[in-house]
Amino acid sequence: MIKKAVAVFSLLINLVLFSVFQVNFLKEFCAFSQTLQPQNRDAFFKTLSNMGILPALEVILGMDDAQVRSAATDIFSYLVEYNPSMVREFVMQEAQQNDDDILLINLIIEHMICDTDPELGGAVQLMGLLRTLVDPENMLATANKTEKTEFLGFFYKHCMHVLTAPLLANTTEEKPSKDDFQTAQLLALILELLTFCVEHHTYHIKNYIINKDILRRVLVLMASKHAFLALCKYD
User: Fold this and answer.
1) pLDDT confidence bin for 152, thresholds 50/70/90
2) Helices 121-133 and 104-113, interaxial angle, to 10°?
3) 141 DSSP β-pair partners
4) What is the value of pTM for the model shown?
5) For burial by CB atoms within 10 Å, which of 2, 11, 143, 159 has the most?
C-alpha cells in the first residue's frame, strides 16, 4: 500500500497546478500515516521529503485558494510534528538561494498575520507550529554542529523581523495605532511567542529586544482598551 501511495505522491508533487482534491488527498494520507507503525511512518515521511514535499508546500501556500492553503497548512503541521529538524534544515538551505520574503517559514508567519478568521483559529495553529520550530528542546546537537546555534541565528536574522512587523507598526506612538479586537488578538499571539523566545532563547532574544527597542513597544500596548492585550506582558 505504501508503494502505491508513493506512486500517487510522485504525480501530485510534480504537478504545476494543485487542486483542492489533490492537496486534500495528500492531507488525508498524512492523517492516515499516524496509524502506521513507527518504521512505516518514518518511511512515509522520508519518502515525502525526498520527493520535495516542502518546496511543493511552499508553492501551494503562495496560492490564492484558501481551501488549498488550509490543507497545505495541515500537511505542514504533520511534517513539523514528525520531524521539526527536517523542516529547519530545509528553510536554512533555501535561505542561501531565496529572498527572505519567499522563505517557507516567513510564508507561515505571513499567513498567521493575515488570518481573516475573526477568532484567528488558523493563526493559533500556525503560532503553535512556529513555537515547535523555535523550541531548543527538540533541536539536535552533534559533534560537528549544534542545530540550536545555527537555526536560531538564521531565525533572528531572516524571520524575526517578519514576526514582529505588526507589533512595530502598531506601536509608533504612545497608544496603539489600531486597537480593534482582531488586531489585539494577533498582537497577543505575537507577544505569546515572544514570551516563549524570552524563556528559551536568552542570548538571541536579549540582543533583539535591545536593538529593536521591543520593550518600549510592548509597553505601548498597556494603553490598549483590550485587557487581555494590556496584561499580556505579565504572562
Assistant:
1) very high
2) 150
3) 146
4) 0.87
5) 159
